[in-house]
Amino acid sequence: MKVFADLVVRGGEQALSAFLDRMKGTCRDGWSQKFESTTGVFGELYCFTCTRTCVRPHADVWLSQRHPNELRVTNVLSPEFKSLTYDQYNQILRDFLESCVKPAARDEVQILLSETAFGLTQFLSERCATLLQRFSREANRSMLTRDDLRRWNEFVTLAHREDAPLDEPFLRKWLEEDEGWPELDAERLADQYARARDLLRVFVESQPA
Fold it and tell me: In the chain, pLDDT over 90 holds for what percent of residues?
């Protein structure tokens, strides 16, 4: 499942200040600082812009300094599109990393770029992921059958037993984007999953030692 990547730069307050100063002069390949910092809801904001090329649209990348020791990309926008796809967003972010961030970086700052795609096995055991996939691919989506509910309950029970870190938003997104479930059905199943996990947790905690 594709996601928007996160780009974070961490370091001491002075190191980040020097890093930002260097970025103004080291950006390349059509990148430049759009304007000096401004204060917003997310703290100090810095905007860098790139010209359009054959592999990327014209875009603005917004850096936020909510904390003295961290800079984080909070948005990537392009006037050429109403909204960017995951691939477009992540491509611009990688381009910004290579053309602006890395040339200005020194050993005193740490650069972190998150994954752009996640699979079920990053949140579920292979057995648990198989149960969920089997439910999704064999279910009667117009009206769940008794067998569908049994397969669903097997998945939820195992996720609880293994204390799987799969959360409601990821499950909803996976069902909708990877498995093609209608939005409302994916939302309903993800909500049922979260409620069942909560109920099982309360049940276990209420048992005598």
Answer: 82
